[in-house]
Design goal:
Shape: globular
Distance between the termini: 41 Å
Order of helices and strands: EEHEEEEEEEEEEE
Bound molecules: copper (II) ion
Structural class: mainly beta
Number of strands: 13
């Protein structure tokens, strides 16, 4: 006796892909268990496409709303790249570098991804300024970095 929750097709709004993520059986089971109406059991996820290559990180949007954000990373370059995110008010080009790598502690640094490969990273982001970059030796300094804002 599974109760599925039907959701509308994905909305597209200014490049931000807001997608209803529904795990029908699980959501319904949890909803029943904790007494939440089924209609509230779906939730919204913000998805940001990330393209990496030599030597750029290009997000599909420069800013998102606070909450759960899924980065969908794709390496379209010829070298391996990582995807790192750090929360900082420092300017995008002014992060401290040691041994050719950013020395700040990132929230997360995933990869390295080989050419043609990629992955996803979901984080719960608070409002603030962030920098997205690749932390393979020398890549940040070569320009593989971009400012990112959470509002
Ligand atoms: Cu790189």
């Amino acid at each position: 006796m599974r109760k599925g929750t039907r959701t509308p097709l994905p909305d597209t709004k200014e490049g931000v892909r807001m997608r209803k993520l529904v795990l029908p059986a699980v959501a319904a089971a949890i909803a029943v268990a904790i007494g939440v109406p089924i209609a509230l059991a779906s939730f919204t996820v913000t998805s940001v496409g990330i393209t990496e290559k030599e030597f750029k990180v290009t997000p599909s949007v420069q800013s998102v709303k606070a909450g759960s954000v899924t980065f969908r990373i794709k390496n379209r370059g010829a070298l391996a790249h990582t995807f790192a995110i750090v929360k900082t008010s420092l300017a995008v080009g002014k992060l401290p570098v040691k041994s050719d790598r950013v020395s700040l502690r990132p929230i997360k640094d995933v990869g390295p991804f080989k050419p043609g490969k990629g992955g996803t990273l979901t984080l719960n982001l608070k409002p603030g300024k962030y920098v997205l970059y690749c932390n393979v030796k020398g890549h940040y300094s070569a320009g593989q970095r971009v400012a990112f804002t959470v509002t």
